[in-house]
């Protein structure tokens, strides 16, 4: 079985965001494999361990993104594909880039995280499914294979949909799908020898129109700083009365 | 410049979703003298015409094809793509809901257009529509525009004003050509039937590890009921199995924008704040005066939530008139 996992490098979730002139500062930032993509990589490796598969991981990003490919290889993926691309590429372009990068390859299953924790759009994987003409199921919390079809559970705002779909298809991972393993030391060592193919977006036969995308970022900014809040004092009963009065008269939310 | 705006109106558990009224209001604004069309998919579509008419669309398209219930991406994508072409929409708006997140990217790829997801703002600036949206889990924001092609966006619930604009729209049946739906919905387990949907709740009472057990959520539920709100949780509470993951608010859970967020026994880790920091008013109740949650709270009570929350419930009962 041939599995492709789409992954992205993102800021660590603890990072404070610093912006200069609309650009996000990357100095001293710690980068990680997008947490939702971790679920996707883990699921692919579990399938590999259960039923046998070759797992390829692919990322589109700047040079520094190579580290998430190495992390995924250390977790147990077999091959990696790195496509270097300008950071200004939007979801439209990234989906075109990925589709071009895997042209000619046949995958039985494509997995990805349901969204990246930096951009929060959740578009790319689903766009890729459409480009490839395969069905997709997003935000899955459970996956099982039955021959050439899969039974998955999908999280739909708290409701659970049980869905049956034939391979090949694409699924995006939601929290709860599995518990991603930490790369082991032997895994990290093996990863260094696993194949990693490199392309630039320009290597792939994409039109200027495709690479230019359909949207652009005009500005980026931090939210206004919140004013310090009020910690109430006094006997608890009185604090409660004061709080309710404030919520009604001052905050006007009840 | 006047535009043709199409809004996909959504229902859940037999009721129209609030975010659809927000989208219709935004549509009226962005149409700039042009036309707004609403679309409803599913067997019960016709029943919503009266209510949708309160929010100003000129035309309501009803697609009652059986293939559209229950929801599947393939059916919705085909229907919506065909409708966008048929009405020649310049702008398409959906709520950033489970359906919006699942359908919109695929429609965008199919039509070769851009998509700006999870918007908290949509404004016309010098003739260009500029969308505002959170990035890095709400730690920052960006403004985005379309450089080419149709304007397509999903709107984050609870972030836009709703304005009534009662009209007499034309109702048009829409019969999409839906073939080859490749996913089969075997079952739907409704964990959220009844009660207020977290992402659209105006008031949320939320519990963290400090709740200590499943039963610990009872006082929070009572407070939420009195306030007409929903109950949420931090990841810590869910991991500890005090509650279901469907209640989780945070970076890897739901993002909420209520008017009032009452955090009980929640320490306030960055990942949790990512899910609620844009709440209008935040109240924190925690035994630990050093808990980071107090730094984002508008009001704080340092105390035992099991003492404070029931007292709050009693106090609110006194001042609120039950409807």
Could you explain how this protein is built, in words?
The complex is a heterodimer of chains A (254) and B (323). By secondary structure, chain A is of the alpha/beta class. Chain A folds into 2 domains: 2-212, 3-Layer(aba) Sandwich (Rossmann fold); 229-254, no CATH class. Chain A contains 7 helices and 15 strands. In chain A, the strands form 3 sheets. In chain A, strands 11-10-9-12-8-1-6-7-13 form a 9-stranded mixed sheet, sandwiched between helices. In chain A, strand 10 and strand 11 form a beta hairpin. The longest helix of chain A is centred in the N-terminal third of the chain and has 17 residues, at 35-51. Chain A starts with a strand and ends in a 5-residue tail after the last helix. In chain A, 46% of the residues are buried. The mean pLDDT of chain A is 95. Chain B is α/β, with parallel strands linked by helices and 323 residues long. Chain B folds into 2 domains: 4-173, HUPs (Rossmann fold), CATH 3.40.50; 198-319, Rossmann fold (3-Layer(aba) Sandwich). Helix content of chain B is 27%, strand content 28%. Chain B is built from 9 helices and 18 strands. In chain B, a hairpin with a 4-residue loop joins strand 9 and strand 10. In chain B, helix 5 runs parallel beside helix 9 (305-319). The longest helix of chain B is centred in the N-terminal third of the chain and has 15 residues, at 73-87. Chain B is elongated. The interface between A and B is large, with 81 and 96 residues.
